[in-house]
Every structure is written in C-alpha cells, then in structure tokens.
Amino acid sequence: MKFLNPTFEENRLNLIEYLSIAVGKEINGLRKQPQPTVGGIENRNYYIYAKTDGGNIDFVLRCEPEHIPQWRKSYDLYNLHREYLILQELHELNLRLRTPQVWGFDHGETFGVPSFLMECLPGKHLRWTFDPSYSDQLVSQLAELIAYISTIDYREADSLEAILPVRTMCSNLVWLDENSRTFRNDPLVKYLLSWLSERLPNARPLTFCHGDPNPQNFLHKNGVIYAAIDWEFACLKNDPLGEILCVGWLHQKPELKTIFCQAFGRDVEELLWFEVCGLFGATYVNHNKKNFEANRNKLTQLVGYRKH
Predict the structure, then answer these.
(1) Quick check: 127 and 216 in contact, CB under 8 A?
(2) Position 308 in a domain
(3) Which end of the chain has fewer beta carbons closer than 10 Å to its terminal beta carbon, N or C?
(4) 80 with 116: CB under 8 angstroms?
(5) In terms of C-beta density within 10 A (0-12 exposed, 13-18 middle, 19 or more buried), how is residue 121 classed?
(6) DSSP letter string, 154-219
(7) Strand order, beta sheet including 124-125
(8) What is the reported pLDDT for 39?
(9) What values do phi and psi take at 117, rounded to 5?
(10) What is the distance between the alpha carbons of residues 301 and 241, in angstroms, rounded to a whole number?
C-alpha cells in the first residue's frame, strides 16, 4: 500500500479527520505545515500542530518505517502496534518517569502504513554525543533513570506481561549464532561464540527494560530529566545491565561506565560480557563495513584472542 505522507497538502483533510477521530474532539485545522522530527535512523515521525476551539495541541504522528534492516526484522523490532499497547499500559502506571499518551492506532487505512498519535512532550532531547555542558548531576540522573526502568513492576499493568517480548541472554546468543553464519569461516567468530557461551552470566529474574535507552530518547527541562520516549524496543530481560551500552556517552567517555554500573548496584567488570555480545552483533550481524576492521580488532583485544 502506498504511504500517504502527512506533510503533503493533498493529504491535509485526511490528516485532520484522523486527528479528530483519534483524540475524540474536533480539530479545526493546522497552525502550520507538519514537519518530520529530527533523529532516528528508520523512523517516520512527524510534528503535528493542531488547533481546536479549546486551544492549540501539538502531537507526534508515528508511522512505520519505510525500510527496516533484515537483522532488525529477524529480532522482531519495529512493531508499532506493540509499542502503542505498551505506551497505553505505561500511561496507567504511577511512574517517576513520564511517558507520552497515545491515541488512535491505525493499521494502515489512513496513511497506508501502521501509525499512531502521541502526545508531544515539552523539553529538549539529550544529545547522542556527550555535551561538555552536561553536569555530573545530569549524568547521574540518566544512569539512575535507566536503572529505575528495570524496577518497574510490569505485572501491575493489566496486559504488559503478555505484550512484552522476552529477550534472555541465552536467546540473544542463539540469535547471534544464527545470524552470523555468513562469517563462519572467520576463526574469531567461532572463538567469540564459545567465549560468550562459556562466560554466560547467571540469569536473574525477568525485568522490564526500555530496550534503547540512548540519551536522545530522554527529555529534560530545567536541568531535570523527566520523560522517556521511543519504547518500540521495550522487552523483558533476565539481566538489564547491558541496557547501559545503548548510552553512546560511555563509548566516548569510558570512565562513565562506573557511574552507570553503580546505578544498577553492579561492578564494571560485569559489563564485559555485554560489551562483547553487543560488539559481536554490530560486527557480524549488523555488518557495518565502515567499522568492520576496527570492531574486529576491538573484539580481539576484549577477549584476548590470539590466532593459532
């Protein structure tokens, strides 16, 4: 089905009708042209500036990506309907962290692809790259909030447990094995899979995880991080520690690993397995040709591999 871009003038009436039905109130029109949001690799998200008799309302329209890499499909990512249901459930919980309210899931009848409407939360996104202006307090806030998410009792929600996919360390290892077979002649691949299997951490009780807690998915205002967005990768894990490796700051400033590990009550040494696991995926599954040799060399160093 053809995607009906909400920024195109010919789709304006269609968009306004959808907005009115989704939020249950009459939308009189738009204050200005819808704009694509900044950020996200595959996402198609749009700022919508609506007006009603009661005042102005800003939304984000979230549409299914046009192109999803095969490795992400195989990992069952970008299920917009699941994200919509997760956000509905989270909104009903009394959380320390704000999440956007959502409305009007559409299976493709309106825009040609699955989509839904989100509350446009105020504030600024944290940057993917570390900003020297960020205070130690802000860094600690982010670490504590990522750890806090893993303490959310998903069983308190009506349907959250049934909605969330389970991604254990064992299942991740199986997935890496199955999706790296193109490189099976590389002796390092066999060594790494054995290394990961032999050093598999002890499983912990399943905990709720955001799935992609990179800084851009957190909003701050007045020096306080108060909201998290982009919950499409949310899942249950039997060890949430690897979540912190989504924070690009740690790759720029490795000394921050201590702060983030401490937020989980863990030692930095426990992070190594997750680092190797993540870098293996980036190198041999999400085959980044530009960084392939650099990643491979880093893996060799991390596990102390010596070619025989």
Answers:
(1) yes
(2) no
(3) C
(4) yes
(5) middle
(6) GGGSSSHHHHSPB--HHHHHHHHHHT-GGGTTSHHHHHHHHHHHHTPPPP---EEE-S---GGGEE
(7) 124-125, 218-221, 224-228
(8) 65
(9) -105, 140
(10) 22
Q: Which two tokens stand for residue 176?
A: 């890496």
Q: Is residue 287 part of a domain?
A: yes
Both 78 and 168 in one domain: the answer is no
Residue 23 CA to residue 12 CA, distance in Å, equals 17
Distance (Å, whole) CA 228 – CA 119 = 12
pLDDT of 233 reads 94
Examine residue 1 and state whether it is found in any structural domain, yes or no.
no
* CATH code of residue 211: 3.90.1200.10
**Predicted confidence (pLDDT) per residue in 56-110, tens digit:** 999 999 999 888 878 778 888 889 999 999 999 999 998 999 999 999 999 999 9
CB of 45 within 8 A of CB of 37?
yes
Residues 131 and 96 in one domain: no
Name the strand (E) or helix (H) holding 115. strand 115-119
How would you classify residue 230: left for phi > 0, otherwise alpha for psi between -120 and 50, otherwise beta? left
How many domains does the structure of the chain reveal? 2
Looking at the DSSP bridge assignments, the partners of residue 224 are 221
Residues 67/68/71/76 CA torsion (nearest 10 deg): -160
**Structure confidence by residue, pLDDT tens digits, 171-182:** 999 999 999 999
What ranges in the chain are assigned the alpha helix state H? 12-23, 70-74, 80-92, 136-149, 160-163, 169-178, 187-198, 249-252, 257-263, 272-280, 292-303
Whose structure tokens read 């095969």?
Answer: 70
